[in-house]
Amino acid sequence: MPDQPGDVTQLLLEWSAGDESARERLVPLVFDELRRIARRYLNREGREHTLQPTALVHELYLKLVDRRRVQWRNRAQFFGVAAEMMRQVLVDHARARLTKKRGEGVAPRSLDDFWGLAEKEDEDLVALDGALKDLAVLDPRQARVVELRFFAGLDNEEIAEVLGVSTTTVKRDWRTARLWLRRQIARQ
User: Fold this and answer.
1) Secondary-structure breakdown of the chain: helix, strand, coil percentages, each rounded to the nearest 5
2) Is the overall model pTM greater than 0.70, yes or no?
3) Where are the domains of the chain?
4) Per-residue pLDDT reduced to its tens digit, 122-173
5) DSSP letter at 52?
6) Which of 28, 72, 79, 100 sits in a 20 to 30 Å window from 160, CA-based?
7) Given phi > 0 = left and psi -120 to 50 = alpha, else beta, which region is 69?
């Protein structure tokens, strides 16, 4: 079997060019990595979460199938987009659960809770999502760095490739974004 990252990139390019069969050939190559990303998300969610990694990947697949005119460039970009879409599925799920449980409202939390190993609750994800959206208004690239590193698990080189910037820029954006997010969540 040829090199998997190269295969993934080639299939993404073929899919972008309109070859729907490329998407079907892509799924087996990326499924395990997407489950790993889903597992990372769900581990941060805590044990009470009702979604399983495979179900989250299936939700993602349905969103990807509906997505039209995406110009896939490479494997790193694909996993970055996939991570963003998974985060949105989980945020939507968390909001629905919060609405059902409490009616509305989310208690603020420290950003340190997000990067610790403690169990996470729906409020954590919703609060972080809100802070990331605020950051995206001020600095979209910094928000994207957080998303790609924290949620997708991409390393600095992969993030730099996805964003078309240097690894030094990625490191600087990560440090700045973390500080900003801590302050933002602390004010809530």
Assistant:
1) 75, 0, 25
2) no
3) 4-187
4) 566 777 788 888 999 999 999 999 988 877 778 899 899 888 999 999 999 9
5) -
6) 28
7) left
